[in-house]
Amino acid sequence: RCETCSEEEAKYRCPRCMKYSCSLLCVKKHKLALSCNGVRDKTAFVSVNEFTDLNLLSDYRFLEDVGRTADAAARHPTMHSPTTKKLLYCLRNKARRCDIDLRTLPIGFTKRRENSTTFNCMEKKFYWHLKLVFPHCHAEYTLKGVPDDKTLADILKPYIDPVESDPVVCQRLKIYTVSPQSDVQILMKIENRKQNSIR
């Protein structure tokens, strides 16, 4: 049976979430209800008991795709551009002098491409590219050019302050705006964690 309408016999199965559907309408409904994109997750866990030759072939193709992407990134013209290297070297030096452990992703990565962090030599100040994630509301906001002397309280005011925040944003982040400020926790993602670490 179709897992969306529970009336008709199922004809299709979603490659992403494995839900059965009977028609295109039900497929669209299930994608909307579960925020499913319908694209098979190539990195999904498969137990040893269920592992087949098809899974092995899928893993092999995935590794080939990764290899091709890495190779294309290594051949990218900006990878060997003296200007890019000089700017990055300068940014790392400035960060080191400010006692900041600045790490960069290789060229070709989306986060590297989107990052707009710069250092203003005149002001001797970093302007950071920030990504604010509000997990309880499934909301994300990207900020560009945030000066390093701006406090977290000032950065968050336009989002979660009951008085100063934008009404549309305030409504979306209602759980944060109605909560006392002392209950709001600001956490920073730990990069380069060891696998299965409990922190």
From TrEMBL:
Keywords: Isopeptide bond, Metal-binding, Phosphoprotein, Ribosome biogenesis, Ubl conjugation, Zinc, Zinc-finger. GO terms for biological process: box C/D snoRNP assembly; maturation of LSU-rRNA from tricistronic rRNA transcript (SSU-rRNA, 5.8S rRNA, LSU-rRNA); snoRNA localization. The keyword Zinc-finger applies. One of its GO terms (molecular function) is zinc ion binding. Gene3D superfamilies: 3.30.60.190. One of its GO terms (cellular component) is pre-snoRNP complex. Residues 2-36 form the HIT-type domain. Belongs to the BCD1 family. Required for box C/D snoRNAs accumulation involved in snoRNA processing, snoRNA transport to the nucleolus and ribosome biogenesis. Interacts with FBL, SNU13, NOP58, NUFIP1, RUVBL1, RUVBL2 and TAF9. Interacts (via HIT-type zinc finger) with the RUVBL1/RUVBL2 complex in the presence of ADP. This is Box C/D snoRNA protein 1. It comes from Cathartes aura.
